[in-house]
């Protein structure tokens, strides 16, 4: 059988450069991984997730975006940033439900507000990445008391790529890495935005601020 003039038929061009067999290239493009975008509220996590996912959508790469059903701040079928960017999303109750909602053909799986999922999200994200999906999880790494906000820290440890975003401290304009709750509540989850939380830098953050004002009255 005639060999195309520009190759030897053995994976090499006539100029001697290596040409990868297409099966190898496909396998490489297929490889899955896990990306985490973490940081406090207002640090641009959702914005960054939307930016990354939208670029894949423009390139016609099959994507699916998920959000926890409990986060209904901006409607249930969209991820919306504080800067009003949005992308369509599927609400799910649990990590297991998310796993079963991912279609075979999907290449990119975006997940917002990862901290509102159960710890099962760590194994689910790893399983999806192992199955060749590109998984991007955005979520708070610290809760309003400055404690690790499960399951984001574990996801960060299991991820190939981690982006730690900073907000602008609402008090002084410095690098905001904490989320300060400015309403009174001991609940771990209080949904809200500007009315309930501020981004604060290391110097302006005070996890006991609400507690102190409670004692003062
Ligand atoms: P996150 O998902 O991390 O809470 P978003 O992506 O929803 O953040 O919102 C980021 C946007 O929020 C910024 O681009 C900016 O327009 C707006 N924003 C409001 N307050 C702040 C702040 N203190 N620091 C940074 N961005 C802020
Ligand atoms: Mg967000
Ligand atoms: Zn500050």
Explain this structure:
By secondary structure, this protein is an alpha/beta fold. The chain has a domain at about 30-165: Rossmann fold. About 25% of the residues lie in helices and about 20% in strands. The chain is built from 6 helices and 12 strands. The chain has a 6-stranded parallel sheet, sandwiched between helices. The longest helix is centred in the N-terminal third of the chain and has 14 residues, at about 45-60. The N and C termini lie far apart (about 90 Å). Bound molecules: adenosine-5'-diphosphate, magnesium ion and zinc ion. Zinc ion binds near residues 172, 200 and 203.
At a glance:
By secondary structure, this protein is α/β, with parallel strands linked by helices. The protein contains 6 helices and 12 strands. It has a domain at 31-165: P-loop containing nucleotide triphosphate hydrolases (Rossmann fold, 3-Layer(aba) Sandwich).
> Based on helices, strands and strand pairing, what is the structural class?
alpha/beta
CATH class of the domain at 31-165: Alpha Beta
Q: Which ions, cofactors or small ligands are bound in this entry?
A: adenosine-5'-diphosphate, magnesium ion, zinc ion
Globular, elongated, flat, extended or rod-shaped: what is the shape?
globular
């Amino acid at each position: 059988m005639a060999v195309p003039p520009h190759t030897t038929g053995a994976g090499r061009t006539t100029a001697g450069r290596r040409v990868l067999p297409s099966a190898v290239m496909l396998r490489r493009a297929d490889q899955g991984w896990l990306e985490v975008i973490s940081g406090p509220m207002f640090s641009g996590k959702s914005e960054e997730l939307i930016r990354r996912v939208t670029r894949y959508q423009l390139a016609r790469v099959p994507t699916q975006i998920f959000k926890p059903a409990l986060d209904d701040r901006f409607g249930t079928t969209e991820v919306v940033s504080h800067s009003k960017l949005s992308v369509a999303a599927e609400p799910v109750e649990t990590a297991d439900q998310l796993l079963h909602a991912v279609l075979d053909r999907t290449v990119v799986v975006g997940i917002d507000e990862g901290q509102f999922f159960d710890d099962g999200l760590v194994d689910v994200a790893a399983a999806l990445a192992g199955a060749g999906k590109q998984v991007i999880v955005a979520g708070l790494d610290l809760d309003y008391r400055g404690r690790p906000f499960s399951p984001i820290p574990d996801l960060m440890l299991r991820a190939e790529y981690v982006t730690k975003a900073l907000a602008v401290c609402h008090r002084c304009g410095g690098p905001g890495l904490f989320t300060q709750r400015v309403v009174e509540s001991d609940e771990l989850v209080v949904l809200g935005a500007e009315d309930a939380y501020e981004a604060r830098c290391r110097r302006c953050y005070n996890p006991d601020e609400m507690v102190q004002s409670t004692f003062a009255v």
